[in-house]
Write a sequence for this structure.
């Protein structure tokens, strides 16, 4: 993840090659990696879907259109599509279909002198993960003369039982060392920087504990509604869609101990220890909400219940706020607040570490409770970077204190940042599993949240364009805290 390594010649196979993820994220990322010579000396991309009557030429034309939209500055898209892309239908996904796909891959390898290294990326509806993994295993596509890697998109299961079952099927055909469970939040530069920020800067790490930290807050706010995903989302809700995976990943990276090395398993084991230390979440520390009609950035938007595809009267949560306690030496007594919601005031992903206020203050008329806490705010979206907040004296007034910040923005220093998928795809090709979720990690995470799936809690309505239901503010006020935003 942090070092640059060599990429072997390979075939990159995408199941779900005509889908939204492929069009908007995977194709542009593979193309950009190719432009930067980071896809290796020789490679072919094979897209697979059920659609039958698409020739290679037609698929390349579609891909070119997508690249024009998502990589508008590119000049070589047509040439790249013509030389790299292939398409095959999976038909009815019968054994004969898998055999035909296997033969097609072997033919590509023989024609272009590729040594049998293969990645299989499942950009598929989650309902067909199991059958596709079984199909790969039973057709012998899980092994080759080179390396074989399996990439699985989110969501990984919909509860503990289904996640365990999916892991069982994966391990029936693949070794864990071949498996890459994607959480695209981990591809973001700020998330990767978390370890450098903490473990290469002793000034931060030395205060990163219960002696100095008052609370930690993680917000993943979306301004969009459910859009065209209601069919999936109404069955899932925000807890499954966001908290169990993305927010939990951010939390474990924020809270983990220093790993003994940067090897993938060292890092992932430290994240698992955090999950193991989180106390069972109490019902009174859970707030669910669902957006009603409102205004987001001057646009009038409808309520969740009026969105296309939402079941009438649905009780699905589009907002979750939680208070968590990590019962270990570093964090005992420090509340971790996490929240996520759709149709919030703005799109924003932030991790805020609020430090304790001074025990007394000399600066009348302020008492210590009115001095803002020092804070480190890591912003993942929309502008990756971080702020260090501190108090200063206003000139010309004896004791008026104001909050100011020192800011660092990635784009200002380094220009365009790679999309998270670019980083993750390159890691797959260089066999670096650090930014991918291990099987025990996913199961521990489900173990933590499974009891909440069964809770019969109130789902509070909240106005679209705000910051969620007031019950979420009360969750913090009970502990004399408040949500911090930049
Ligand atoms: N889109 C995103 O931004 C995004 C972000 C994060 C995660 N994901 C995850 O990525 C996966 C794909 O999402 P998506 O948005 O791309 O979905 P999508 O637009 O519905 O595309 C699904 C793709 O799978 C193919 N497909 C469906 N059933 C199949 C089967 N039985 N065998 C082989 N191919 C099949 C579809 O083509 P045919 O119908 O022709 O088969 C299509 O190419 C999902 O797990 C999703 O949760 C997506």
């Amino acid at each position: 993840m942090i070092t640059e390594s060599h990429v072997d010649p390979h075939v990159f196979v995408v199941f779900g090659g005509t889908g939204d993820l492929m069009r908007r994220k995977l194709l542009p990322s593979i193309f950009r990696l190719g432009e930067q010579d980071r896809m290796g000396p020789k490679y072919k991309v094979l897209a697979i879907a059920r659609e039958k009557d698409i020739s290679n030429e037609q698929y390349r034309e579609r891909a070119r259109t997508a690249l024009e939209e998502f990589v508008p500055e590119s000049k070589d898209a047509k040439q790249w599509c013509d030389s790299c892309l292939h398409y095959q239908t999976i038909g009815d996904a019968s054994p004969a279909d898998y055999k035909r796909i296997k033969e097609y891959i072997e033919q590509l390898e023989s024609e272009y002198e590729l040594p049998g290294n293969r990645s299989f990326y499942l950009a598929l509806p989650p309902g067909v993960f199991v059958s596709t993994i079984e199909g790969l295993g039973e057709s012998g596509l899980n092994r080759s003369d080179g390396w074989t890697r399996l990439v699985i998109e989110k969501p990984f299961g919909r509860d503990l039982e289904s996640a365990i079952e999916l892991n069982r099927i994966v391990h029936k055909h693949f070794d864990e060392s071949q498996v890459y469970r994607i959480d695209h939040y981990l591809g973001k530069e700020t998330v990767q920087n978390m370890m450098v920020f903490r473990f290469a800067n002793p000034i931060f790490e030395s205060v990163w504990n219960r002696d100095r930290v008052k609370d930690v807050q993680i917000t993943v706010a979306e301004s969009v509604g459910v859009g065209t995903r209601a069919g999936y989302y109404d069955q899932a809700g925000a807890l499954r869609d966001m908290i169990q995976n993305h927010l939990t990943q951010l939390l474990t990276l924020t809270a983990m101990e220093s790993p003994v090395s940067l090897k993938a398993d060292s890092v992932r084991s430290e994240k698992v220890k955090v999950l193991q230390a989180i106390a069972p979440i109490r019902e009174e520390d859970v707030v669910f909400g669902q957006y009603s009609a409102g205004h987001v950035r001057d646009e009038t938007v409808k309520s969740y219940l009026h969105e296309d595809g939402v079941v009438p009267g649905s009780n699905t949560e589009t907002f979750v706020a939680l208070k968590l306690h990590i019962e270990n030496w570093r964090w005992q007594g420090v509340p971790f607040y996490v929240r996520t919601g759709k149709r919030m005031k703005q799109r924003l992903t932030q991790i805020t570490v609020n430090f304790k206020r001074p025990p007394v203050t000399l600066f009348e008329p302020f008492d210590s409770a009115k001095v803002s806490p020092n804070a480190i705010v890591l912003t993942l979206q929309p502008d990756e970077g971080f702020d260090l907040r501190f108090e200063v004296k206003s000139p010309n007034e004896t004791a008026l204190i104001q909050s100011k910040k020192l800011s660092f923005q990635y784009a200002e220093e380094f220009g365009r940042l790679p999309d998270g998928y670019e980083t993750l795809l390159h890691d797959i090709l260089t066999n670096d599993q650090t930014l991918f979720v291990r099987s025990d990690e996913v199961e521990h995470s489900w173990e933590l949240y499974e009891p909440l799936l069964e809770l019969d809690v109130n789902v509070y309505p909240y106005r679209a364009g705000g910051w969620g239901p007031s019950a979420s503010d009360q969750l913090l006020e009970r502990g004399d805290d408040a949500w911090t935003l930049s």
About this structure: The mean pLDDT is 93. The longest strand covers residues 286-296.
